[in-house]
Amino acid sequence: MGGAWVQGNVTDNLGALNFSNGSNNGAVIGGGQLGFNYQINNIVLGGEWDFDWVVNNNNANNGIPVPSVGSIQVSANDNWISTFAARFGVAFDRWLIYGKAGAGWVGANNFTVTNLTTGISVSGSNNNGNSGWLVGAGVEWAFASNWSAKIEYDYLGLNSRTFTSPGLILPSDTFTTYPSIQMVKFGINYRFGLDIPPIRY
User: Fold this and answer.
1) How many other β-carbons are positioned within 10 Å of the β-carbon of residue 197?
2) Is 44 in contact with 96 (CB distance < 8 Å)?
3) Can you tell me whether residue 31 is helix, strand or coil?
4) Among 2, 68, 143, 191, which residue has the least CB neighbours within 10 Å?
């Protein structure tokens, strides 16, 4: 479990407006992971897959004034985050310092553009998934036999998403978001002893 922060960077194609002033909204995440390790002396190699549910974060800007149109707000929500990454690190005593790199997927919905002045709201297709690349780093401590605890930071850079308003708010305006997610995670792992050779840190 931990926290995630979404950066939206939403722009439109007509007025070159930037709707990112309300981004960086935080949300609580929680889930689980599966993985494996292979240790050669002090070098640890492995891979892991994790899945986290995201508490409704209602990521929205505060509204951008557009002359003769109104105050325009762009909002979106992420429902879940899943990542798959290779992990590589150095172990000493009962500690492991590691980095990771791989890919991530996000379940997102309700990409919505709202004119706060008129109350008109237009939503894109729900349940739009997104994908991108992942990098991260962390520290893991083997505090007991078969048990370890970790803290890590991950950065997930996602592909851009585009939504066209059908003339209800701005005439044929297209909104594009360049999302990214930063995550800080805390976790407890149970190691089944199936690593070959057995993990030693």
Assistant:
1) 9
2) yes
3) strand
4) 68
Q: pLDDT tens digits for the chain (201 residues)?
A: 788 887 766 666 655 566 654 455 678 899 999 998 888 889 999 999 999 998 765 566 667 777 777 777 777 777 899 999 999 999 988 899 999 999 999 887 667 777 888 877 777 655 567 899 999 999 999 888 788 999 999 999 988 777 776 665 566 677 777 778 899 999 999 887 654 444 566
Closest C-alpha to 179, from 9, 4, 34:
9
CATH 1.10.287 for domain 2-190: no
Going across the sheet that includes 161-164, the strands are 10-12, 174-177, 161-164
Q: And the tokens for 36?
A: 């494996």
What residue ranges do the domains of the chain occupy?
A: 2-190
**What pTM did the predictor assign?**
0.81
| Buried/exposed 52-67: b ≥16 CB within 10 Å, e otherwise | bebeebebbbebbebe
Are the C-beta atoms of 12 and 164 separated by less than 8 Å?
no
